[in-house]
Queue: 2 jobs
Job 1
Amino acid sequence: MKFLMLIVRNVIRNPMRSILSVLVTIVLVFVVIVVWSVLSLLDYLTTEKSQNFRGMVTERWSIPSRLPFSYADPLSRGAARRPGDVVPTDSMTWQFYVSTFDKEKITRESLLFCVAVEPAKILTMMDGLDLLEGNDLDQLSKYVKALEEKRQGVILGRNHAVNLLQKTIFAPEEIIGKRINVTGLATFKGINLEFEVVGLFPPGRYDTLAAINREYYNNAYDAYQRTTGRPHPLAGANLNLVWLKVPDTNSFTRLAEQIENAPDFANPAVKCETAASGYSSFLGGFKDLIWGMRWLLAPACLFTILLVIANAISISVRERRQEMAVMKVLGFRPWQILALVLGESLLLGAGAGMLSAGGTYLVINVLMGGLKFPIAFFDRFLVPEAALWWGPSVGGFAALLGSLLPAWSARNVKAADVFAKIT
Amino acid sequence: MTLVQTDEPAPPMRSDAIVRVRHVHKYFRRGSEQIDVLHDLSLDVPAGEFLALMGPSGSGKTTLLNLVAGLDTPSEGEVWVGDQLVSAMSESQLARWRTRHIGFIFQFYHLLPVLSAYENVELPLLLLPLSAAQRRRQVTTALELVGLSHRMRHRPGQLSGGQQQRVGIARAIVTDPTLIVADEPTGDLDARSAEEILDLLGELRRVLHKTIILVTHDPRAASRADRILHLEKGQLVEAGQSFGH
C-alpha cells in the first residue's frame, strides 16, 4: 500500500509532464480503439464460425446479384431433392430496394436502403439480432410482429429516423407510427411505396438499413404491371440473395455442392459461399485501407505511446538517480527499484488508457450514436464493450514496454558511484 | 581501536570489534590505467565507538565508508560487520543487510521530496516485517529523539537544512541499526546547525551506545569523536587524538 502511495506521489511530482504524457496517451489510445473497433467488426464478419454456420447464395457471374424470385423457395430448402440431402435449419431471402423520401432533394441523408424480408426471419437470421436478449429482444419482437401484421410497415435504422425527424438522435422512437412515402431510385424507378413506421432496429449495425415486408414489396411489382401495362424491368430478377443456416461446416460443404449442382439453378447460375467469404469479397475494394489501418496506423500509434512514455520515464529516472541511490542505501533491492519505475509507467499508461477507453465509449456510443466511417455497406461503427479493457491494456502494455530500459537503468544505479559524483 | 601500517601483518581481532576490515584493496580501472583508492588497509572499530575519518579529498575515506556500509565491495580483502562477511554478499543480500544493520547519514540529507518527514523516516521500515502500529511507534520515537516530532507532516522543502539533516538522522536510526555511518553530515550546514547535529550524534553514541563512523574534513566535527583516523593515498597514516567523550 505504501509502495503504491510512493508510485502515485512520484507520478504526480511533476504534474505538467505527467498530464502531457497522459494527454498524448489518451489521444493515441483513442485512435487505436477506433481503429480496432472497425477492424473487430470486420474481423467478426469475415471469420468463419464453427457453429450455426451461415451461407449466402447469390448470382454466380454477375454483381449485383439478381435472381428470379422463383428461386426463393427451393433455395430456402437448400435445393434438397433426395433423401439424405442437407436441409438448412433456417433461411432468409433478401430483396434490396433503394429509394428516397425526398425526391426533390436526393442526398445521402434522404436515401432509404431497404431489404424486403419475411419479418419473422429478422429475429433468427440477421447477424447480431439473433443474439439479442432481454429488453432489446422484447422490443424488436414487438416491432417484428407489427411488421407481420401491417404489410406496409417498415422497421427503420436509427439514422433514417434521425434524418426524417431532422433532429438529434436522442428520441428517434418518435418516428414510430408516422407514415412516409418513398420514391424508387435507379433500377427501382417506378416502384414508389408508402410505409408506416412500425419500429426501429437496435442502435449499431443496422443504423442505415430498413426492413420491409416482402409480400408488400412483391405486390408493388404486380401493381406496377397493372398500372403501366408492362412488367417492371426488375420483376423477374428482384431476389438478391438468400441466407442459409446449417449446423456446421461439413453440412455447409455438402449444401453448397447440392445447390451449385442443382439443375434448377442453371440460368442464372448461382454460387453458395460462406457469409464470411461473402463479406470478404464485398470488402475486397477496401483491403488496402483496412491493411493500412491494421498494420500501419494502429502500430504507429502504439509505437508513439511507447516513445512518449519512454521519454517521460527516462527523464524522470535521470532526474531521480540520487533518490534511487538513496533508496538502495536504505535497503531497497534492485527489483524493488525496477518495480517502482515500472509501476509509475504502468499507472500512467493504464490510467490514461482507461480514461481514453471510457471516454471513447461514452462519446462515440452514447453521445454520437456511433462513429461515422462509411466503408462497404457499413455507415457507423460502435465501440465494443471489450474496448473498456483494450484501453488500459494497450496503454499499460505500451507504457511497460517503453519504460523497460529506463527501469533497468534505475535498477542498476550504483549508490557509491552516484554519491561519488556529488561529493 | 587499532591502526595497522600496511606492510605489517594483520592484527589479531579485537573481541569487542564490531567492524573488522582486513587487507582491503580497492582500485578502479579507467581504460588501461588502474587507480588505487585503498591499499592493503586493515582496521577494527569496537562496538559503541565514535570514530572520525579525516583526510584530503581523494584519500579514500568515503570509499572506505562505502565498503563498511556495504555500498561497494573491495577489490581484495574482507570487511566484517558483526559476524557478517559483508564483502562476500550479493547486491540483494547487501540491500537486505543494510536495512537492518546500517544507518546512513548523507551530507546533502537526500530526503525524498515527495514524502513528509514522517514518511521519509518510515521508508526503511517498509522493508521490514513490521505492523503499521510498530512502524508508527518507531518513527515517532526517532523523530522525538531528533526533536522534530512537531514537524513530522512537513515536506523536506518546508524544513531548514538543519531540520532536514535531523530527519536524515531519524531515518538512519529508525531501524535501530548496528552501525551508523555519516559522510560529511555537517558539510552543508551553518555553524550553529552543525553544532546541533554533532551534539545529536554524540547523544546517539552516549545514550543509545551506537557505533558511529564519521567522515569529515572539519576538525571541529572530528574533535567530537572518540578517535580520529587520517587517511592519505588509500592508507591509514596516523592515529588521531582521542577525546574520550
Job 2
Amino acid sequence: MQFSKKRFPVLEIAKINLRHNAPLSIAVAVLLCLVTPLLIGTANLDRNSAAMPLEMFVSLVGVVLLTPIFQPEQNEEIDDLVSSKYCSTAKVHLIRTVYSAGIAALLICVFTVSMKLQSCDVTPVLALGAIADALFLGSMGMLTSALTGNTVIGYMPPLLYYALNIGMGPKLGSLYLFSMVTGSYTAKLWLFLAGLLMMAAALFYQRLRKRMA
Amino acid sequence: MLLLQEIKKIVKSIPYMIFVAAVVIGLFSQGVFRFQDDLLEEPQPGGSYGYKHEEIAEQIMPAALRDLLTEFSNNNYTTYPIGFIKHVKLSESKQEKMAEILSGITGNDKDRILQEAAGITPGASGNYTFQIGGDGMQQDGNGGFTIGSDEKQQNSPEKMAFAVRDDMDYARFKELMGQADDLLGGGSNYAVDSLIGYGTVPLTYEEAKERYDLAISSDKVTGGYARLFSDYAGVMVLSILPVFLAVILGMKDRRVKMEALIYTKKISAAKLTFIRYLALVIAAMLPVILISYISNMMVWSSYPGIQLDYLAPLKYDFGWLLPSVMISTAIGMFLTELTGTPIAVAVQGLWWMFDVNLGIKSVSSGYALLRLAPRHNAGADSLFRTQDYLDHFGDLVQNRLLMAGIALALILLTILIYESKRKGKFGGNAIFKKAVSSIRDRKNKSQA
C-alpha cells in the first residue's frame, strides 16, 4: 500500500499494530475481566463495595495493555528495520499508547456497565476512578520499560506498587490506589495526572534515546 | 565454576538491582525493620489480655440469628466462598427456604416470617419488596430481636419478636445454620466451622501466661519474629518478583543471539538448566536471608536473659520462603522455555494477585494446600499465635512440600523442552505461530 509522505497513516498503523502486537495483551486483559466475577462478587453491591472489583482487579488491565508499548522495537532487528522507514517511531508509540489506553478504558466501562446490570450502585465516577488507576499503573510500567529497554522489567514496579497499596493502605495518601472503597475520590485526580506525566516522560525518553542512538 | 559464573551474571545485572531494591522497599513498607516496637511482654495479674473465640451456645445462637435475620430482611448476604467478599441475593424460592430455616430456629411460622421480616407474600409473584432494613432491628432484654418496618411502625404499633426457641438444641442449631450456609453457596459466617466467631470471651491471666510461655519455649522469641517476617516477605515480594529474574534471564540468550551457540556446547541440558535454576534461586534468596537477619537482630538485645534461637531466621528462610522462590522461578523458566514469550509474568502475576487478595480473609492463618504464600499474621499482639502455628504445622509442611515438588517437576519439564529444542524437535512457540499463520493464509486465500 502506498502512502503520501505528507499524510501520516494513523489508522493503518493502529490497525497493523492491533493485529500484530496487541492481541496477546488484549487477550490477557479480557481474561482478567472475565475471571474477576468468578472470584469476587460483582452483583448487588453498594457504591463503596462496587469500587473493590474495579480498583483492585479490573484496573490491572492498564499494566497489561500499556507496559508493552515499546516492546516491538526492543528487538534490535525490528528497531533497525523501523528506523529505516519514513514513519516516525515516536508517532507509532503515541498511536499504540492511545489505542491501549482506549482499550483499557473501554474494558473498564464495559465491566462497569455489566456491574450496573447486576444491580450494583456504580456510577461513571467509579469507572473514571478505575481508569485513573489503570493509567497510573500502566504508565509506571511504560516508563520503566522505556528507561531499562526491557518490557519484562517494566512489569515489576506496577506490581510492587500494587502490593504496597495492599500492605500500606491509605498511608500512601494522594497516590493510594484503592481510595474509592473508602468513599474518597480526590486521589484519583492525582493518579490520573501522575499517569499522564509518566506516559509523556516515557514517550519523550524513548524519543530522546532514539535521537541519541 | 559454572554456578558461580551464573550467580555473578545475575547479581551484576540491572534487573537484579531492581529486584533487590523492590525487596527492600516492599519489606520496609511492612515494618520488618521496626520489630523492636512490638515486644513480647510477660502478662501481669490483673491486666487485660485480649479475647479468644469459644463455642458458647448461649452467645453464638442469638448473635448468629441476629445477623441472619438482618441479612434475610435485606436479602443481601455477605459470604466469602473462596476468600473474596461476595454479596449474595437469593431468589424468591430460596428466600422461602431460608424462611423455613428461620422458622425452625425461632419457632415462628414461615409465612409470617416471610411477610413480616422480608415483606414477601408467599405465592404472590412479583410481590418481592423488602421493607425492613438492618437498622430496624433491635435487641430486647430477653436476647430476642424485634424487627419493624417504617411502614409497619407508622401503621401499627405491633412488632414481631424473633428469638431462638427455648427448646433449641445447639447441635440442631448448627445443623440449621449449616443448611443456611449451603443455601448461600458456602463461605458465610453461618458455616458450621465459622459459627465460633460469634462466641467471644476474654482471656484469663493463666491463658495469657500460657501463650507467653509457649512463645518463649517453642518459638524462643526469635522464631515468632522470623515467622512474621516470612509472612510479609512471602506475600509481598518472593511469590512474584523471582519470576521476573527467571524470565529476563531465560530470554537473554535470545536477545543477545547466543541461543544457537549455547546449543552447540558440550554441557548437558539437565546440568545447564539446573545450574541456572539454582543460580536464580540462590540470587533471589541472598538479599532475603540478609534482611531476615537484620530484621531479627533488631530485637535480640530487647530480651536479656531469655534463650533465643539465633538460627530461627535461617530456618524460616529455607522452610517457609524457599518453596515460594522455587515455584515462582520454576514457572518463569518453564513458560519462557516453552513459549519464548514473557507470558510467565502474566501467569504468575495473576496467581499472586488472587493469592494476595485471598489472604485478606485468611490472613491470620492461611496454610491451605494451594496457597502460594502462606499467611500467619497477627504478630506480637497475640504473642505470635504460636499455638495456632503448632496446630496447623502439618498443613504448612504439606503446602511447602507441594510447592517445592511442583517447582522441581516444572524444572524437569524445562530440561526436556530445552533438550528437544537443542535437537531441533521443538521450536518453542513455533506451533502457535504456525497455527496463526495457517489461519492467516486461509483468510488471505479466501479474500483472493
